[in-house]
Design a protein that fits this description.
Blueprint lengths: L1 E13 L2 E7 L3 E6 L5 H13 L14 E2 L2 E2 L5 E9 L2 E15 L6 E12 L2 E3 L1 H11 L2 H8 L1 H6 L2 H12 L4 H5 L3 H9 L5 H32 L6 H125 L21 H77 L14 H17 L8 H74 L5 E8 L5 E9 L10 H19 L1 E2 L2 E4 L14 E6 L6 E2 L1
Parallel strand pairs: 1-12, 3-14, 13-14
Antiparallel strand pairs: 1-2, 1-6, 3-15, 4-5, 6-7, 7-8, 8-9, 10-11
Helix pairs in contact: 3-13, 8-12, 9-10, 9-11, 9-12
């Protein structure tokens, strides 16, 4: 088993402690009055390892405070010396405030704190420090085995999870091995949890009970729907008699309809004659209209050709006028550009003459800038003559260059002018040709309009049927046939039909009553089926309840075995792992109690502390490690149970100074 022993602690500016060195033995008593720093020692031990206080808070006041003001420019430091299986290790954690001077300012400002870590006086990162601590002991395990109150303050679900982890889970197969009913139960719930299966059969039982409760009301409702019993044999004979009378009436109606069919056939033949004659009338009108249309179209054919020709001439005229207007605008553009070029040529001529007329003017003597006399220095005179000749040559060269540029510019403009004159001439010819075409088209349009006006447009004339002798003859034939139709007589069977309908109504009433016989038989079968369903539901409910009893027995056996295993691990504490509802159903809990079954939360401080130590002993055995145990309020405990762990008792006394023994 790994043994972690706290050899000593050193606190510097930690909470209310400026500088304190604390040595520890196997059993150390830290005593003093309230606010003398007992809990601070426990906080320092937890903080140097995990960065929290003993209440598991990360944010707690570490920096010392004087007169209500934090001492913000000093480090808070805790170092500890541990013996891990006899090997000494020194861990140190420092909270260092950072003060920085911002750019452009002269004063330093607080910029938060950073934490510094050391292992055996070697600086290290936060990650490496945490990794080293976890290699010694897991943080959660550390909390559980260093504070007797910690495990008892955990959520019951976390307590329960740790207890089952220590004792090991009791499998369903282990419980079922001693009972055949349990084995059969496990076979039924393959693939499901016991709690899910229990919920499933509870839901099935509820549905079965609900269905069973409905059956009596369903039987009563069926009986209420059942009609009264009548003389069904007499009603059947009456239906047979009425059916025979209806059959006799149908024969009479059929006979009269046969006579009517003969008359209808004659009438149908006459209607067919009328239809044929009406078609002939329509054909006559159609032929007359077609003949009229043909004559009109023949008369208007030449006029249509003239109209198309005139339309094409007008379209061509509009197109040629558009072309003429285009050439007109083009010629105006040419004239403008030619005028501009001619003006440019004239300007170049004048510029050439002006440049050509320029002559070189030279100075005859040198004048002294100081005395104003003509210079008599031979060297200067010679130098001046040489410079004058160079200046003259430069003048003549520049004039020749400028005259050449003017000539080249003039030649280019002349070439452009000649090109424009050619294009102008060509466009003038094209325009004149188009104007000639326009004149010819105007003449053709005038002639076409004259010819068109001489040809009158023909229109369709309305057809008057009565002016056609054959049409009038057909009308007379149709009138004669229609007059002959008035002589035919319709067969009257209304009285027979009325009599038949009365018999049908009476027969249908009898059939409706006779139908109650089948309905009564149907309802009797339904009642019998409901009674059978009631017996089946009752049996199913009994089967489900048997399964529930088996589940309850199984759970009780499992609860007993789980509690037995877990509670065998402790000498003082026991744990109640299941409780019951008012209805008797079990549900999961985790209630620490003493051996008498009294909840630890209701016992005195001594019982709570010793129960916590008992739990720590079991946890240390399971995890294979011991660590220092800090016992707060230990003055309330007369004796402690034996433990292999190092004990540090925090005792409240009337002393105003903290004492370490």
């Amino acid at each position: 088993m790994k043994k972690v022993f706290l050899k000593e602690l050193r606190l510097i500016n930690f909470k209310g402690v400026k500088d304190k060195f604390i040595p520890f033995s196997n059993k150390t008593i830290v005593s003093g009055g309230n606010a003398t720093g007992k809990s601070t020692i426990f906080d320092a031990f937890v903080w140097v390892n995990f960065g929290k206080d003993h209440l598991d808070r990360k944010d707690f006041e570490i920096t010392p405070i004087e007169d209500g003001v934090k001492l913000g420019r000093i480090d808070s430091e805790v170092s500890e010396t541990l013996l891990i299986d006899g090997l000494e290790t020194v861990l140190r954690r420092i909270l260092h405030p950072k003060w920085v001077r911002r750019r452009g300012t002269s004063e330093e400002v607080f910029d938060g704190c950073e934490t510094l870590y050391y292992i055996n006086d070697v600086p290290t990162s936060a990650g490496e420090y945490k990794k080293f601590i976890n290699s010694i002991i897991d943080e959660t395990v550390f909390k559980m085995i260093t504070d007797p109150a910690f495990f008892l303050s955990m959520k019951w679900q976390d307590q329960r999870e740790n207890l089952f982890q220590i004792a090991g889970t009791v499998s369903d197969n282990e419980i079922a091995a001693s009972n055949p009913d349990f084995l059969a139960l496990l076979d039924m719930i393959t693939g499901k949890s016991m709690s899910d299966f229990k919920k499933e059969i509870a839901a099935r039982k509820k549905k079965l009970n609900d269905d069973l409760k409905l059956i009596p009301s369903r039987i009563d409702q069926t009986k209420k729907l059942m009609p009264d019993t009548d003389d069904f044999d007499f009603i059947s004979k009456e239906i047979e008699r009425i059916d025979k009378e209806i059959s006799d009436i149908d024969l009479q109606i059929s006979s009269k309809y046969e006579a009517q069919d003969t008359l209808n056939k004659v009438r149908q033949e006459k209607f067919e004659e009328i239809r044929v004659l009406e078609l002939k009338k329509k054909q006559l009108i159609f032929e007359e209209e077609e003949s009229n249309k043909k004559w009109v179209n023949e008369c208007n054919s030449y006029r249509n050709e003239l109209e198309n020709k005139l339309s094409n001439l007008r379209i061509t005229l509009d197109s040629e006028k558009s072309n003429a207007n285009t050439y007109k605008n083009l010629l105006i553009s040419y004239e403008t550009r030619i005028e501009v070029i001619n003006k440019g040529l004239q300007d170049l001529r004048e510029e050439w003459q002006k440049e050509n007329a320029k002559t070189y003017v030279e100075s005859d003597c040198l004048i002294c800038p100081i005395f104003g006399n003509k210079c008599s220095d031979a060297f200067s005179i010679e130098k001046n003559e040489s410079s004058k000749e160079l200046a003259k040559q430069a003048f003549l060269s520049e004039r020749e260059k400028r005259l050449k540029e003017i000539n080249e510019n003039g030649v280019a403009k002349k070439e452009t002018l000649e090109s424009l004159l050619k294009e102008q001439k060509k466009s003038t010819v094209e325009r004149d040709s188009i104007l000639s075409k326009i004149s010819d088209l105007d003449k053709q349009i005038i002639e076409a309009e004259k010819v068109l006006n001489k040809n009158i447009k023909r229109v369709y004339s309305e057809i008057i049927p009565n002016n056609i002798s054959e049409y009038v003859e057909l009308e007379n034939q149709i009138s004669e046939i229609k007059n002959s139709l008035a002589d035919t007589i319709q067969v009257d069977v209304s009285e027979l039909k009325e009599k038949k309908q009365k018999l049908v109504d009476v027969r249908d009433c009898h059939k409706l009553v006779l139908g109650n016989k089948a309905l009564i038989e149907k309802y009797n079968l339904e009642i019998k089926s409901l009674e059978e369903e009631s017996r089946n539901l009752s049996q199913q409910i009994a089967d489900v309840e048997k399964q529930e009893f088996t589940i309850n027995d199984f759970n009780r056996a499992k609860i007993d075995e789980c509690s037995k295993r877990i509670n065998s691990l402790f000498s003082i504490a026991e744990f109640k792992l299941f409780d019951h509802t008012i209805e008797g159903n079990e549900f999961e809990v985790c209630i620490p109690t003493n051996k008498k079954g009294v909840p630890i939360s209701t016992t005195n401080t001594a019982d709570k502390v010793n129960a916590g130590l008992d739990i720590i002993n079991t946890l240390c055995k399971f995890h294979g490690v011991t660590a220092p145990i800090f016992i707060d309020n230990s003055e309330s405990v007369n004796s402690f149970i034996d433990t292999e762990s190092q004990l540090i008792n925090l005792v409240v006394t009337n002393d105003k100074v903290l004492t370490i023994k």
